[in-house]
Design a protein that fits this description.
This protein is of the alpha+beta class. The protein contains eleven helices and twelve strands. It is rod-shaped.
């Protein structure tokens, strides 16, 4: 087993960045602090380096001027004391000047010396050029030498790097040797001590910067932990409250702002708990009331239905007014039974006591059965029920009884509002879902009606005479059945162009639906009668 996998670290850091406010805060603070320390450190390092170079450069130029003056005095004294100016005396002057000039410098690494004859001269006597053994002749540039010959009043200098890698400064000036002409005096000063000082300062700045960043990170971590800790506790408590653990509260310690927040949060949680408990109790009482009333009404309703059936069966022997009364009684008792059954079903949904009886079911066969059962009603209204099943569908795990109830409700509404035009049922499927759509070409609904179509006890046109007795709970129960199957029940309608309900169900329980196999409304792919446009 590999305990350290460097390839997994980027993913872990990204996940930690998204999930941890503390990690983000500390990381951002440390990165910004590191950037600030880097900028300040670079500025200080450059400033110290420039100051070291400037101060050492001025010191070297002063020493070079002193060395120039000393060499010129030696040459002037030699010319004055010896008017003959012999060659032997000229040849000994460079050594004398070197012996006098080099000890006068204060460079710890030593100073290289060179005395070179300026080119282009014609004199009666010539003094040989000389160099110290450590003088780097290759470092003398043409620009430096031309500057020395051009400006005889000042010393000229140039930064160079010695063959050893150490920085150095070459300083040149022009001296005049009586009877021998002009010569160029060059001194090379090693700056290794200044470089060592700058390196020490940079190392100190680096170590100090790292220590400062670590200290800032530690302080930030401590402060953020003090602040984020209570926030994390509040978040965890909120999640527990959302999960139904209404007794959870945030600990209250001290009198600071965090404690004030915790106290306010706890008061809010107490109030919410009290309201939720009251609402839950009220809901329980309402559900129990509906259930009890429905059950209690069944016994007298059964007696009334039996008596009504006897009267309904003998209505031919009654007078017309009495016979009509028996028919109305029979119809309303049937409607009352349906209403009680729907109310009991709604109460079960509200109580969360509904259980699905899933089994593999072929929805096309289910639709065919529902169409067969609704055909007499459709023929009575002058509508034709059509089935469009293009193929590709499979069995789905559903509660066949509840899906059949949804279909009967949708088909009944389509026939009721279809204005005698065809009603088309379309079935299709994809990899994750199977869908069916019931489309009529009747009066349709306004968008305001569409927004309320699944509300309990709502009807699009209460004054409209209905062929089948509706309770106003059919679509609400159908929606509950669809949600219980983890599916969708959606509606499309245009006033004057009809209505379409689409039911989309997962083919396998527990697998989420990505998209519906049918459009809303679908393309039926069949020709409809002339009256349908």
């Amino acid at each position: 087993m590999r305990f350290f996998d460097w390839r997994a670290w980027p993913g872990r850091l990204v996940r930690l960045w998204r999930l941890s406010l503390q990690f983000r805060t500390v990381s951002i603070t440390v990165l910004l602090s590191a950037f600030a320390v880097l900028i300040i450190g670079l500025y200080i390092s450059v400033s110290i380096g420039n100051n070291l170079f400037d101060s050492r450069s001025r010191q070297i130029q002063d020493e070079a001027r002193s060395a120039h003056n000393l060499a010129q005095e030696i040459f002037d004294a030699a010319g004055t004391s010896n008017d003959q100016g012999t060659t032997v005396e000229l040849d000994s002057l460079p050594g004398t000047v070197q012996d006098k000039v080099l000890p006068s410098t204060s460079t710890p690494g030593g100073t290289a010396f060179a005395l070179l004859r300026s080119p282009g001269q014609s004199t009666s006597q010539v003094m040989q050029s000389t160099r110290s053994t450590n003088f780097p002749s290759a470092l003398l540039s043409d620009s430096l030498r031309s500057g020395v010959r051009r400006d005889v009043e000042h010393v000229q200098f140039q930064s160079v790097t010695l063959p050893s890698g150490s920085p150095a400064l070459v300083v040149g000036s022009q001296v005049t040797v009586p009877s021998a002409g002009d010569y160029e005096l060059y001194l090379v000063y090693d700056l290794v001590q200044a470089q060592q000082t700058l390196t020490f300062v940079q190392q100190t700045l680096l170590l100090g910067g790292l220590a400062l960043i670590i200290l800032i990170g530690a302080v930030t971590y401590t402060i953020v932990r003090l602040v984020v800790g209570p926030i994390r506790i509040a978040a965890e408590t909120s999640e527990k409250l959302a999960a139904g653990q209404l007794q959870e509260r945030i600990p209250e310690r001290g009198d600071d702002v965090i404690t004030t927040l915790a106290r306010s949060f706890n008061r809010m949680a107490d109030s919410l708990q009290e309201q939720i408990v009251k609402l839950a109790e009220l809901s329980r009482l309402q559900q129990r009331f509906v259930s009890d009333v429905s059950h209690e009404l069944r016994t007298p309703l059964t007696t009334i239905r039996l008596a009504g059936d006897v009267l309904y069966d003998q209505r031919q022997a009654f007078e017309p007014a009495t016979a009509r009364t028996a028919e109305l009684l029979h119809t309303q008792v049937q409607r009352f039974e349906i209403l009680l059954a729907d109310l009991l079903e709604v109460s079960r949904y509200d109580a969360g006591a509904v259980q699905l009886e899933l089994e593999p079911t072929n929805l096309v066969r289910l639709v065919e059965d529902a169409i067969d059962s609704m055909t007499p009603l459709a023929e009575g209204r002058g509508s034709e029920l059509r089935l469009v099943a293009p193929g590709g569908y499979f069995e789905a795990e559903v509660d066949a009884r509840r899906i059949r109830r949804i279909l009967r409700n949708l088909l009944g509404n389509a026939v009721e509002h279809g204005e005698g035009r065809p009603v088309v049922v379309t079935v299709d499927s994809n990899a994750s879902a199977i869908a069916l759509a019931v489309r009529d070409y009747g009066i349709g609904m306004t968008q305001q009606d569409v927004a309320q179509v699944f509300d309990r006890f709502w009807r699009a046109d209460p004054s409209r005479q209905r062929t089948i007795g509706g309770t106003g709970l059919g679509l609400a129960i159908a929606l509950e059945d669809a949600v219980l199957h983890e599916g969708w029940l959606e509606v499309w309608s245009e006033f004057g162009d009809g209505t379409c309900f689409r039911l989309t169900l997962p083919r396998v329980r527990g697998i989420a639906i990505d998209s519906s196999p049918l459009d809303l409304p679908p393309d039926e792919r069949v020709a409809v009668e002339e009256g349908v446009s």
